[in-house]
Amino acid sequence: MTWSASRWGLLLAGAWLVLALHGLGAADIVGDDEAREAGIVQDVVAGHWLLPRFNDQLLPDKPILYHWLAAAPCALAGFSETAVRLPSALAGAALVWWTTTFGAALFGRTAGVVAGILLATTPTFLDHARVARPDVLLALLLALALGAAFRWWRDGARRDAAWALAWVGAGVLAKGPVAPALSGATLVAFLAWQRQLRRLPGLLTVPGVAAALVLGLGWYAVALAGWGGRFVHEHLVGRYVGNVVGGLMVGKAYSQRSVLYHLLFYPKHLLVVALPWTPLVAVAVWQLWRAGRVRDPRARFLVCWALAPVVVFTPAQWKLRYYLLPSLPALACLAAPVVTALLAAPLPKTGRVPRAVAALVVAALVVAAGWLALTHADRFADADRAVLASLATVAATSSAAALLGFGLGVAVVTVALFAWPGLVAVTAAAVVAWSAIGLPAMEQATSRRDSLRPFAEAARAAALPLAFYGPTVRPIVVYVGHPIPTLHRKPDALLPHTLVIATEPDYHSLVEHARLGPPLAIATGRASNLTSTRLVLAETRQPKPRTDPADGAGPGAPAARL
Hints:
Layout: H1 5-21, H2 32-45, H3 65-77, H4 81-107, H5 109-120, H6 123-129, H7 135-155, H8 158-175, H9 178-193, H10 206-227, H11 229-245, H12 259-273, H13 278-291, H14 297-313, H15 328-344, H16 352-375, H17 382-395, H18 398-450, H19 453-461, E1 466-468, H20 474-480, E2 499-503, H21 504-512, E3 516-526, E4 532-540
Parallel strand pairs: 1-2
Antiparallel strand pairs: 2-4, 3-4
Helix pairs in contact: 1-4, 1-5, 2-3, 2-20, 3-4, 4-5, 4-6, 4-7, 4-15, 5-15, 7-8, 7-9, 8-9, 8-10, 9-14, 10-11, 13-15, 14-15, 16-18, 17-18, 19-20
């Protein structure tokens, strides 16, 4: 019996989900971003389903669909790293299934299965699906919306138009105005390319508009009513407007970066997030251009979809590579016909020498990439250097080095014997092996190096009130399990019998003025997304009363306060 694309998609999604769930909770929550989302999930579970906050202070910087989804397993099984990351992994599996079925609808069953495999074996995709953030969920909702919109354009069914708008509304509930911006940019560019912009009003059906407004604006209305001006200032203006206008908002330069940096950041990183399949995407675009098949509406739609995040996010001051995740399904579908043709082409009986040369080139490229990463890490972005540091910890073992050497040898032999089909197969197998072994090991290495969980558990076990002397360290709040106030470096705010969490310089300053006792715990970990800090936990001491010269103390008596 021949399997349908949908059944193949389910098989791929299930296999990918096994990889995504493997060791999902073995690494601690490290850094600001994931800790913020996890802390808001904890507040939702505590009963604040509509108006949650982080640490009783920080408003969510995006709507709360992901937090609702993560709160369900946390409420049933208790808070854990696995539970809070589960919706992201499930969304990734659903996106693998959807990419398979949509690719099959565009180019046939085989190409659809290949598209699903390409997406499933993209390391960037799996890496972000194992984090408690709404980015993969947004990519899924956008894919559902754009798939329905394409079917509406092709078939003219008003039901597809309504579903497209409903999914856009759900995307707003997941990550705000980004959803309509990306879907709108894709559809407007596609219809303009097709010279059919006049069709755009036909997408606005009454059920679709109603669903988009309820899903997209319902929580915003509740948040505005509950938080009022603070919500406008912190969320709407501070998050969205502030990111677009940059420093102009406070009368400074838009950005300290050059214009060229902003223009090239996303085009350059689009090539990175698609690895290891970037060459196949490039070949696909080149073949489409050469054969004049860019006139094919399917190819046009996918190109507009893949480039929409580049266009939408380029004006923003703050740029992050994972904002390009919504492009990955489109790139997988775009490359799928090329890979299908490569796999179906008969292997020539001659040409062993060129294949051997190609094998040596592949080996040289792999070695050169490894050498560049290890010897020129300072040229990479901060986030990439953090990844390389964790990777170096994993690769330091002899078994990992042997595995790498064995894999490189297999790749060389395979390319020499089987050319392109062999290279594609070996690359996919290498990514699967990395996903099953390397990625969890790297995550756990990062956790061992940067986690503040043991420090937080020591603070919680002391059973005394806690306070940050300086900025809030979000992972500590998550693992303590309840809000921790901050004293904003105000010594007068120190109360007796309180455990204070301070950086090492702040701790020494307070000790000099007899405000803190000896350290109860010391740890070095990631207090922000990329920066490691040495923290000290100590109990406050009762300040000595001020002495008055009239009471017999000399004029040089030391002050007891900072």
